[in-house]
Amino acid sequence: MKIMVTGIGGIGGYMASFLCAYYDNVTLIARRKRKESLIEKGLILHSDFFGEHVAHPAVTDNPSSCGIQDVIFVCVKNYSLPAALQAVIPCIDDHTMVVCMQNGVDHSEVARSILPKGKIMDSTIYINTEAQDDFSIRQSGAFARMYISGSEGEYSKTLHDLLDHPGLKVRYADDIRVEVWNKFITNCAINVITAYYEDTFAGVFARPQGKEEFHTLLHEAYTIGKAQGVNLADDLVDTIYHRVIGQKNQNVTSSLAHDVMARRPNELETFSGYLVKTAAKLGIDIPLSKKFYEALKERTSSK
To answer: Residue 42: pLDDT above 90?
Structure first.
């Protein structure tokens, strides 16, 4: 089976390392210094869940030279997704499974609008991982859990069997939209509030209004999901709220907060940008999400 991974950051790096542990024919798409590092030192993973791994797969910055693939994992950030998909079109035929592993809820729709062929496999992953300055990958925490759509027949089974190994807990989802939105709602609140205050969870929740604002952001995102017909649990907001508030390690922040503080390209549009624009189309008021979105947009565009 020919496997390709594009976007060798936190999630893509972990997935690539995991796949290289079990399969020989894995190709990574990387450019510039990351490509040079992967060729010279290999793909290095430091993982609480999967252990220490060093792999030396094929690496290229020219996907079209790789031929048709059986599975392509697209792990770039949302703002890079259209370009990444365009680049792998020569690698896709009717049987190729394309697994888009972005934050957000509309990446599969983007893929379907761009790719003329291939089978888009909806999924979502729960993992705490990031790329280090030396291009190694650091995964922390005792879990790496992925949900895939169980409604794609043999494609679902093939993907499940491909991933069903130590290092990743893969599960079928009866309704993948529910799992995608469960994660998205959490991400919207966590990413946006930590980015807005440029602070850790502990710092945000220590503010007089911090916990209340976090709960409000969860509820506003939940409202948009329900309005679009997603079968979300009635107690989802409170479940997420108490889980996050009860986390042992509160001295961490989000990827969006890191990017905002570093004035790097970020996924603000993926989170509250999507919510605010969708709410406007639906005629729903989400004032706190809109306030934080507009403030962050102004802050990041002025730097």
So the answer is: yes
- For residue range 66-113, what is the model confidence (pLDDT) as tens digits? 999 999 999 999 999 999 999 999 999 999 999 999 999 999 999 999
26, 3 Cβ separation under 8 angstroms: yes
Burial class (CB in 10 A: 0-12, 13-18, 19+), 123: buried
Q: Residues of the chain with pLDDT > 70: what percent?
A: 99
Structure tokens at 289: 């999400």
| CATH 3.40.50.720 at 3-174, yes or no | yes
In CATH, what class is 178-301?
A: mainly alpha
Distance CA 233, CA 197 (A): 29
What are the extents of the domains in the chain?
A: 3-174, 178-301
Q: What is the mean pLDDT of residues 284-296?
A: 98
